[in-house]
Design a protein that fits this description.
The chain is of the alpha/beta class and 313 residues long. Helix content is 38%, strand content 18%. The chain has helices at residues 27-35, 77-89, 104-116, 132-135, 143-156, 173-182, 222-235, 251-260, 269-274, 278-293, 304-312; strands at residues 5-7, 10-12, 16-18, 40-42, 59-61, 66-68, 95-99, 121-125, 162-165, 187-190, 194-197, 200-201, 206-207, 214-217, 242-245, 264-267. The protein has an 8-stranded parallel barrel, surrounded by 8 helices. 52% of the residues are buried. Bound molecules: 3,4-dihydroxybenzoic acid. 3,4-dihydroxybenzoic acid (DHB) binds at residues 21, 68-72, 125, 128-130, 192-193, 215.
Length: 313
């Protein structure tokens, strides 16, 4: 049973990818993920200049979900150039450089810096749900805004494929994906966190997170991820690769996102719950399921729900 996936000529030994914002701070932490089975890694969201995160507490979790408002802390692009450069000198697995900004112009500048380092792909975080107070609604919540960011980034990214990270918190994610595709998006990451949500402490009567609200992740959001991936795949007629992410804890979760249309699978919150070797565990579980079911190559699963639906209509 073969788990490898090839996307724009880049070979991933298996479909699992470290999701952005999890563990992804230094070259050594990225190598550690690959040693534990990750087929690829995504950096944290990189800003042009140093960016302070939100004060603590920033995360609250139950077994069903996590809420986080870390606030995308980052040392800025100069530090990122060092760490990304260090990793790329001798990379054990493909690297996806994730960028974030508060304006279209800054998205372009940051992407240009990171693209020069030649990551395998760029991922554009236009969908952080906690930026509303600082920068207005996320770009991913409006088709014209999402398209404008895509167009600008494509002008500065050279030959590096650009993946737009979409928000589930919209009425029609397919229309937003299509607007980005028309401006040259090479692929999508779906989904960013859901919400934002809020949790309140009963005794203090106060929101638990210092930021009051945070992005929802974990097992509870998987059905939303599956639906959004299916919508993006259908809207773009399965022509563009999707990094599916959202609530993946097991190999069967990963395969479900693949049936909806994902080629690669981001794993984030589960790293905290199943341990750093969650990548290896998910791969073993995918392997076990596919072998038992006679699936020879994991790529046979990608978008297979759509084919099944079409064959029965
Ligand atoms: C944060 C960023 C995100 O992209 C997200 O989905 C949730 C939280 C943050 O750092 O606050």
């Amino acid at each position: 049973m073969n788990l490898s996936q090839k996307v724009y000529g880049v070979t991933f030994q298996n479909p699992t990818v470290l999701a952005s914002g999890i563990m992804g701070i230094t070259a050594s932490s990225w190598r550690f993920c690959v040693e534990n089975g990750a087929g690829g890694i995504t950096t944290k969201s990189l800003w042009l200049t140093e960016h302070m995160g939100h004060p603590n507490p920033t995360i609250i979790s139950t077994e069903h979900w996590s809420l986080n408002a870390v606030g995308l802390p980052d040392a800025g692009v100069e530090k990122a150039v060092q760490e990304v450069g260090d990793y790329l000198k001798n990379k054990p697995a493909p690297l996806i450089g994730n960028v974030v900004a508060g304006s279209i112009e800054d998205f372009g500048k940051t992407a240009e810096h990171i693209a020069k380092l030649k990551p395998d792909f760029l991922e554009v975080n236009i969908s952080c749900p906690n930026v509303e107070d600082e920068f207005g609604k996320p770009f991913a919540c409006s088709a014209p805004d999402a398209a404008a960011v895509t167009k600008h980034i494509k002008q500065v990214s050279g030959d590096i494929p650009v993946f737009i990270k979409l928000s589930p918190n919209v009425n029609n994610i397919g229309a937003i994906a299509l607007a980005c595709a028309e401006q040259g998006a090479d692929g999508f990451t779906a989904i960013n966190t859901v919400g934002p949500g809020m949790a309140i402490d009963l005794r203090s009567r106060m929101p638990i997170l210092a930021n009051k609200v945070g992005g929802l992740s974990g097992p509870a959001i998987k059905p939303i991820a599956v639906k959004c991936i299916a919508d993006v795949y259908a809207a773009t007629e399965g022509k563009l690769p999707i990094i599916g992410t959202g609530g993946v804890y097991t190999g069967e979760d990963a395969l479900e996102l693949m049936l909806a249309g994902a080629t690669l699978i981001g794993i984030g919150t589960a790293v905290g719950d199943r341990g750093i070797d969650v990548f290896k565990k998910v791969c073993d579980e995918m392997q076990y399921w596919c072998t038992n079911e006679g699936v020879e190559h994991v790529s046979d699963m990608v978008g297979a729900m759509h084919k099944e639906l079409a064959s029965r209509s």
